[in-house]
Amino acid sequence: MNVFPDPVPDLRDASRSGVYALDAARRPALEAAARDTDSRMHVIDLTDAHDKDALLRRFAEALHFPDWFGHNWDALADCLYDLAWLEPAAARVLALWGLTPALREPLLEICEEACTRWRARGMAIWVVVTEDAA
What we know:
Helix content is 37%, strand content 19%.
């Protein structure tokens, strides 16, 4: 995982979107960039989400997953590859605050693949991760 660029890039640039580590001190700059570019920022607070079930619930709530969401890794991937039920946006930022190391690997693999698929369609999806509380 790369470190989020400084200064904050144009979030609409799909060629640069992906999964990045973000220093908590840079959150305000990211939030401002999302507002300035008509991008939609989805904050997913994973603080205290110490198991897969809690993490999946937080994603489902934050991204308003459809009823067919199956509450497993494959269903999370399916939803992140789709997102058709969300309002259109110039770009999307999935801000993962407080991700625990135990859930990091499987989640970030899914997020990397989602970013790759969206980038191929010309849509910018940024996943930014901090391990600290929001």
